[in-house]
Amino acid sequence: MSNITNISAIDRLEDVSRYSSVNPLADKSDQAGETSFDNLLNSAMKLVNQTEEYSNKAEEEEIKYAMGQSDSLHDLMIAQQKANVSLQYTVAVKNTAVEAYRTLMNMQF
């Protein structure tokens, strides 16, 4: 039985949240030369890939259901909801990153 709260992308919400108590600019890596921006970018790319996987899984379930290979409407709805929530989260992360970029660009030095 699937549980929609098991979307692992939500675990990374604290990495990009503006409400996080952890300093997002602090270096989290043990390797020299790797910055937290690299970690953030890698995390965002993993999030995009995972969102794509959920979307593909939802599409596969739709095709199976439409062709009569599966009669489980429950599995179809869960796959669609996971894809939807993951996409919404990815868009929210993207919007936060764009907002941060615009804020930095508007700063006067």
Search tags:
disordered N terminus, mainly alpha, elongated
Plain-language structure description:
The protein starts with 12 loop residues before the first helix and ends with a helix. It is built from three helices and no strands. It is mainly alpha-helical. The model is unreliable at 1-7 (pLDDT under 50). The chain is 64% helix and 0% strand.
Mean pLDDT: 79
**How many beta-strand runs?**
0
- Kindly estimate the percentage of residues that lie in beta strands according to DSSP: under 5%
- State the helix count: 3
Order of helices and strands: HHH
The radius of gyration is 18 Å
List unreliable stretches of 5+ residues: 1-7
Class inferred from helices and paired strands: mainly alpha
Oligomer: single chain
Q: Give the termini distance in whole angstroms.
A: 55 Å
Helix content: 55-70%
**Which term fits the overall shape?**
elongated
Largest sheet: none
Write the layout of secondary structure elements.
Elements: H1 13-16, H2 36-67, H3 73-106
Helix pairs in contact: 2-3
In short:
By secondary structure, the protein is an all-alpha fold.
